[in-house]
Amino acid sequence: MLEWKQINGSWYCYKDGTIVKGWIQDENKRWYYLNPANGMMATGWTQIDSRWYYSYTEKTEKDGDTHYVGEMANGWTQIDSRWYYLYTEKTEKDGDTHYVGEMANGWIQLDSRWYYLYTKTTEKDSDTHYRGEMATGWTQIDAKWYYLYIETREKDGNTHYRGEMATGWIQLDSIWYYLYTETADSHYKGEMAVNTTIDGWIIDSSGVATLNSQPGNITDTARCIYSFFVKKGWTSNSICAMLGNMQGESGIVADMNEVGGGGGYGLVQWTPKSIITNWANQNGLDYRTVDTQCKRIQWELENGQQFFATRAYPMNFGQFTQSTADPTYLAEVFINNYERPYNPNQPQRGVWAENWYNTLAD
């Protein structure tokens, strides 16, 4: 039986009357580290044989369990608002043996998901990130760029956790990027693609993807859409606001499946695709055409579908189509009340809306 004594504010452990030093496991299978020189219980970060361990500095509730001062932590642990991973079992990695409680760094795979933990103190985004800290956002590793989710989010029907490495198509601030889904001779899984063409999208040296379409073709399509809705009585402002959103959704391409396989389709990326295909079939129309998809949007207006006023943007579909407000503002209305994406903060759509207004409006 272990006996704990607090002396001058520090804790010491005794067994059979003798002070304990080094690692000790109590009757509840909790590990503690006692200074080999004097037996003082360690708290916070401690380096042992060139490996870092963390012992709780205060009583902590975590994962439905109570952890006590001095107890060795393992698993995901948040320290000073930063996340670290401490091995939960003895692990072989990169030709080295890592022990329970040891702080991990570099790439780690947990439950089939990849995370990156800084291998050294790093300055990034005007902040200091410490060795072992979990990285988030865009991160450059060995001259290659990766994206680690900055918050838990749903994508393609799956939940992706904060810090998890993204793969496939991702849209950030209205810009599309492609992160390789598998490792090959020329790239690693999760690495950002550059200077290539994938799924009909041209990817530049910065990783930004744009549709492989001639600008004239997009403009011609936009003119057709503009003409259709002008004849239906929409204002130029509202049409161009919608075009700005279409550019973000599909590149103003009617026969366009959602990039990354998310299930959307068409100019405004109806999700699921069956919304537009079933409606077109019922009306004897070709769902792939611009004309059919414009007719569907007009039908939605006339039948109170898809577009719903919100507290932030208290405007219904009819009011939207008659509005002469700034196209940038109306682009915000459309994305929030019609598209309703996971992240509606996409200011680039307002820029595109203004560009279409300058190009198409009389």
TrEMBL record:
Keyword Repeat in annotation: yes
Keywords attached to this entry: Repeat
A Pfam family assignment: Phage_lysozyme2
InterPro entries the record matches: Cell_wall/Cho-bd_repeat, Phage_lysozyme2
Cell wall-binding repeats: 20-40
Domain Phage tail lysozyme, first and last residues per copy: 221-360
Name recorded for this polypeptide: Peptidoglycan-binding domain 1 protein
Organism: Clostridium saccharoperbutylacetonicum N1-4(HMT)
